[in-house]
């Protein structure tokens, strides 16, 4: 009887749902209910609770940490509307991301998510303030580290971010001297070489061309962004790029 009970307990344990996988499933279903570029917060909220629990229990920390950062970034971009709330979410992500990258310095996934959090907050605060506060320098440093760790990660994200920094950041004497729009194009061409059908690679290369006054070529790449289908796993992220591409095309016409 005791042996049977022990076997039953083992079977029950073996078939208990993996909480982390449940959280990932909720995260993957984050765009199940959307209106335009606004997402319902139900699934992402459930995912965040699970990832927070995993981290509090020091369980599956690297993977749960990555998804926690990704979920925060998504919530800040597509769920909350209030700017103060967005800032609070991105600051939370940056704080946790810095903790995680110190613990897992070779994790391309965590470093990319941290770069994303820093960049999203910088967009809200503005380029000049971010430059003066050293935020853009942080993004530069993390992007270079990401390239060393895994230059192919997330469609060549390291090169892509470096390219974006070079064309979006103004050269500011005594503060920032490295931004270079020609270098931006070179870096983004590298991303396109390996992932020519990635929407973001095409979009940011088009922006770099536009910043350099190459309007005709920029138009071609913005049109490509509109032709490529939005990916199910990156639905709102791709739809956002398509909406921005339409705005740029209207400016170029």
Total count of helical runs of at least 4 residues: 13
Overall 3D shape: globular
| Relative helix content | over 70%
Q: What oligomeric state best describes the polypeptide chains here? A: single chain
The first-to-last residue Cα distance is 80 Å
Radius of gyration: 20 Å
Average pLDDT, rounded to a whole number, is 90
Strand content: under 5%
Widest sheet, order of strands: 1-2
SSE succession:
HHEEHHHHHHHHHHH
Helix vs. strand class: mainly alpha
Flag low-confidence runs.
5-16
- Main pleated-sheet profile: 2 strands, antiparallel
Short description:
The protein is mostly helical and 253 residues long. The chain has 2 domains: 17-125; 153-253, Serine Threonine Protein Phosphatase 5, Tetratricopeptide repeat. The chain is 76% helix and 2% strand.
Keywords:
253 residues, mainly alpha, 2 domains, two-stranded antiparallel sheet, 13 helices
Note the topology.
Elements: H1 2-14, H2 19-28, E1 34-35, E2 38-39, H3 42-56, H4 61-79, H5 83-103, H6 108-125, H7 127-132, H8 135-150, H9 153-168, H10 181-194, H11 199-211, H12 215-227, H13 235-252
Antiparallel strand pairs: 1-2
Helix pairs in contact: 2-3, 3-4, 4-5, 4-6, 5-6, 6-8, 6-9, 8-9, 9-10, 9-11, 10-11, 11-12, 11-13, 12-13
Structure description:
Helices cover 76% and strands 2% of the residues. The chain is mainly alpha-helical and 253 residues long. It folds into 2 domains: 109 residues; 101 residues, Tetratricopeptide repeat domain (Serine Threonine Protein Phosphatase 5, Tetratricopeptide repeat, Alpha Horseshoe). It has a two-stranded antiparallel ribbon with strand order 1-2. The protein starts with a helix and ends with a helix. About 5% of the residues have low confidence.
